[in-house]
Each structure stands twice: as structure tokens, then as C-alpha cells.
Design goal:
heterodimer, A: 252 residues, alpha+beta, Rossmann fold, 5 helices, B: 52% helix
Chain lengths: 252, 118
């Protein structure tokens, strides 16, 4: 017997494509992070660097359209030390701007895991993503960006790695682990095998501090501003001022 | 790399909750997008994680990943879908062999150092 379709909606297919690019004069560490992300997203397209200036939003939106994508990850490096990450849905928005901290790339030798290129990750979210509208929005965007579309031509039919998105201290922490299950002689996994499951970290690692959420793609009305955010420039200026004060006291 | 957050939240900060929810509705996948398209699992974090305690923080991430994978695999198993890579399935890996060799070399070197120290 043929099972009737449950709803009138057409069958859903995930067709999200992500454009990944960075700004000019990005430092190698952050460029490696970007390349790591590219290697994790078989449904992404990488483009050449974009100048980080006021009109970058328009340029990027155009690029996203040209490359037939629905999302953009833009790694913006400023002053050769600060990394900002833009997550934008294009053309209609929204977009989120993050400050990226605690970056470790996959090249680091202490992260010893490895997994298939293109296998679809399991996404785990800490449940505090469901507490606030801004986190709920980011969770949906992250899911659509980071989950490899089912039946994508570069995807593999097994699941051997897991992503962690965890909100601790109002920052989103990212981890990527290999799932390692000891093989039984028969290869059919029963629960005995799954109980011995261990995880090995593959990398990369980073931590995202949300700065702003915009209604449009790379701009538009501001929907959320992080009330606790201080830019790295302000922090550096403050430190300099402190040092200056010390010297003045000594002279007196 | 040090980050100093404001202790007092700035009062002028915009927080348009309705706008955020509207956008969420705009971009959300349709209702008939099954779990198999998302592969997402939620995990209740312990309430008091000290971010500055590296070990405790990493442990909580590890537990989240492990717990999430268990839940996801149970679902996949219930759906009768294969999810584990058979041992004879070889394909391109995310880290190339040359990189894995370097990692192996480093591990062996560390092992040697420990043995020498003993």
C-alpha cells in the first residue's frame, strides 16, 4: 500500500549553500581557521579575499548572489590581531557579528582525532540556546550553516564526528570531536559497542562573542546589541592609559 | 587576548525580541523538515561551569558531545539507518595522512621522553 503524504507541503530538501571568505591582510592563523571550516562544510564555496571597508556588505551580498549561495561566513581580520566573524543569511538577512576568541586550528598536533571528509556531523546544542530569542535565532542559523545537506553529492553516508555549540558565560564555544566506536567482529553495532564509544578531539576550536544582530544581510536595523561588549581597541586603549598613569606618578 | 566585559550592562543597548522572533520565523525550515535534516540534539548544561577552569569547561563540552551522540545514534538506530563507518570503508579524511603521521611522530616522541625520564 502506498502511504499518503502527511502534509500538503512539498517534500523538504536542504539546499543551503554557504559562501566562505575572509578580509585582506588576514593573519595565517585565522586563515587556517577559515580553511578548517571550509574542510568541514562540503556544501560551501570559498571565494577570494574581500577588502574590509564600509562597502564590504554590498560586495559580499553581490558575491553570495553570484555564487548562488544562501549564507555567508565572512572572517574579518582587523589590525592583524582581532578576528570578527559575520554569519549572514543573504539576501533577506538576518546577520550576526561575532568577536572570535580562543582560536586553535586543526593543524595543532595535540588534537589527535580525524574523521571522514564530508560526513554529516551530529550537532549538539546546550539547552540554554532555547532560552532567549537571540540564541534561538543563532541556533537556527548555525544549524542551517553547519549541517551538511542530506544526500549532498560530497556527503558520506556515515556519522563519525560531532559538533558542540555550547553557551557558557554568554559566549558560544565550538568543538569538533571524532566519534570512535570499537568494532565488533560482526560489524553490526549493538549497544555493547556504543557503550564503549569515546570521543577524540579533531579541532578547530573557537569561541564566539556575539556583538550585534542585524535584520538585514551585513546591515539593516539592529535587532540586538550585546550590552556587555567592549571592543578590543577600547581594552587596549584602557591598558595604555593605565601604564601612562604609572609613569607620571613615578616622575612626581 | 584578555577580554574585560563591562560589569554594568549598557542601558542604551537595543534588544528587539519581537524582531528577532520574526526573523527566526522568516528563516526557519518548514515544519516537514524532519530531524534527519538537522541532526540536532539538546543538552542540559550543569548550571555552574567556571569558564576559567579549563578542565571543567572542556569536560562539560566532552560530556555534551558524548551524550548528544548517544541520543542521536539511538534515534538513527530506531530509524534503521546505518550510521557507523564500516572498518573496510576508506575515503578521504579531513586531515591528510601526512598530518596524521606528524601527530603519530609527536605522540611517539612524548612516549619516549616519559620512558627516558623513568
Amino acid at each position: 500500500a502506498v502511504v499518503e503524504k502527511k502534509s500538503d507541503l512539498p517534500v523538504f530538501r536542504n539546499k543551503e549553500k554557504v559562501l566562505v571568505t575572509c578580509s585582506r591582510r588576514i593573519i595565517y592563523r585565522y586563515r587556517h581557521l577559515m580553511l578548517n571550516i571550509v574542510s568541514l562544510l562540503p556544501h560551501c564555496k570559498k571565494d577570494s579575499k574581500v577588502e574590509s571597508k564600509e562597502t564590504k556588505g554590498a560586495t559580499l551580498n553581490e558575491l553570495v548572489e553570484l555564487r548562488n549561495c544562501s549564507y555567508c561566513l565572512f572572517f574579518e581580520c582587523r589590525k592583524g590581531k582581532d578576528l570578527y566573524l559575520w554569519m549572514a543569511r543573504s539576501p533577506g538577512g538576518p546577520s550576526v557579528k561575532f568577536l572570535v576568541n580562543a582560536v586553535h586550528t586543526m593543524e595543532e598536533l595535540k588534537l589527535t582525532g580525524n574523521h571522514l571528509k564530508g560526513s554529516r556531523p551530529v550537532l549538539t546544542f546546550s539547552s540554554n540556546f532555547n532560552n532567549e530569542p537571540r540564541w534561538m535565532l543563532m541556533k537556527e542559523m548555525i544549524t542551517q550553516i553547519f549541517e551538511t545537506p542530506k544526500d549532498h553529492r560530497k556527503a558520506k553516508p556515515f556519522h563519525d564526528h560531532v559538533f558542540v555549540f555550547s553557551i557558557v558565560d554568554d559566549h558560544i564555544w565550538f568543538r569538533n570531536y571524532q566519534i570512535s566506536v570499537p568494532h565488533n567482529e560482526t560489524d553490526k553495532v549493538d549497544h555493547g559497542g556504543l557503550d564503549k564509544m569515546t570521543l577524540i578531539e579533531v579541532g578547530p576550536r573557537f569561541c564566539l562573542n556575539p556583538i550585534k544582530v542585524f535584520g538585514g544581510s551585513f546591515g539593516g536595523p539592529t535587532l540586538y546589541e550585546n550590552p556587555f561588549y567592549v571592543s578590543p581597541n577600547q581594552i587596549r586603549a584602557l591598558e595604555k592609559r593605565k601604564k601612562a598613569g604609572k609613569y607620571a606618578k613615578k616622575v612626581k | 587576548d584578555e577580554e574585560v566585559p563591562l560589569t554594568e550592562p549598557s542601558k542604551a543597548a537595543i534588544h528587539n525580541k519581537e524582531g528577532l522572533l520574526e526573523k527566526l520565523e522568516d528563516i526557519a525550515w518548514p515544519e516537514n523538515a524532519d530531524w534527519i535534516h538537522r541532526l540536532t540534539v539538546d543538552y542540559d548544561l550543569p548550571a555552574d561551569i567556571d569558564v576559567n577552569d579549563d578542565l571543567a569547561r572542556e569536560m562539560s563540552f566532552y560530556t555534551q558531545a558524548l551524550d548528544g551522540t548517544r541520543q542521536a545514534f539511538e534515534k538513527l538506530q530506531a530509524m534503521g539507518l546505518p550510521f557507523l563507518r564500516p572498518p573496510d570503508y576508506y575515503a578521504e579524511m579531513v586531515k591528510p595522512d601526512s598530518h596524521m603521521l606528524k601527530i603519530k611522530g609527536k605522540l611517539l616522541e612524548e612516549k619516549k621522553k616519559i620512558e627516558e625520564a623513568e
